[in-house]
Amino acid sequence: MLLMKWIHIIAISLCFPVLSFAQNMAPKSVGFEIMTNRQTGNCMACHDLPGVSGLASNFAPPLQGVATKWNAIELTQWVTDARKINPNTLMPPFGTTQGLTKVISDRAVLSPGEILQVVETLISWR
Ligand code: HEC
């Protein structure tokens, strides 16, 4: 009887760290991969992203909850060319090279399809 009780307690205590780990994990998506890849979005260089800890930065506002501030069209504008929303922004344009002087190629950092994936993830952060 006592042994059963101990097995129970151990089993329950083993479950808790697993549960809290699962809660801390942000749902992974193609958009999330683009945002956290240094070669593509690299958003976490400036933003705190849900589910990314350690290398998080507070240079820019955290992206947790952005979908409560902006709709899909506005979020697309932020990612494509933030200068259209705030001319003095420090956020680089990801969807255009227009007005940039030190570009290596005339290709934007992200394609329209990639921006769509990023916005799909942003819109889920409410
Ligand atoms: C070089 C730093 C930098 C990088 C990299 C960057 N941003 Fe930003 N971003 C900013 C800053 C700073 C702001 C705050 C608004 C401003 O200054 O215009 C901002 C604002 C935003 C906003 C509006 C947030 C709000 O709370 O209103 C969104 C959405 C956003 N960024 C998305 C992204 C995404 C997605 C990426 C990656 C693809 C990214 N940013 C990469 C600097 C950055």
How does this structure look, described?
By secondary structure, the chain is mainly α. The protein is 40% helix and 0% strand. The protein contains 4 helices and no strands. Helix 2 (30-36) packs across helix 4 (112-122) and helix 3 crosses helix 4 (112-122). It is elongated. The N and C termini lie far apart (48 Å). Residues 16-24 have low confidence and may be disordered. Bound molecules: heme C (HEC).
Question: What's the SSE blueprint?
Answer:
Elements: H1 2-24, H2 30-36, H3 72-81, H4 112-122
Helix pairs in contact: 2-4, 3-4
Give structural attributes.
binds heme C; mainly alpha; Cytochrome Bc1 Complex, Chain D, domain 2; about 130 residues; 4 helices; about 0% strand
Strand segment tally: 0
Write down the Rg: 20 Å
Query: Alpha-carbon distance between the termini?
Result: 48 Å
Tally the helices: what do you get? 4
Broad structural category: mainly alpha
Main beta-sheet annotation:
none
| Helical residue percent band | 40-55%
Arithmetic mean pLDDT: 83
Can you tell me the CATH superfamily?
A: Cytochrome c-like domain
In short:
The chain has 126 residues and is mostly helical.
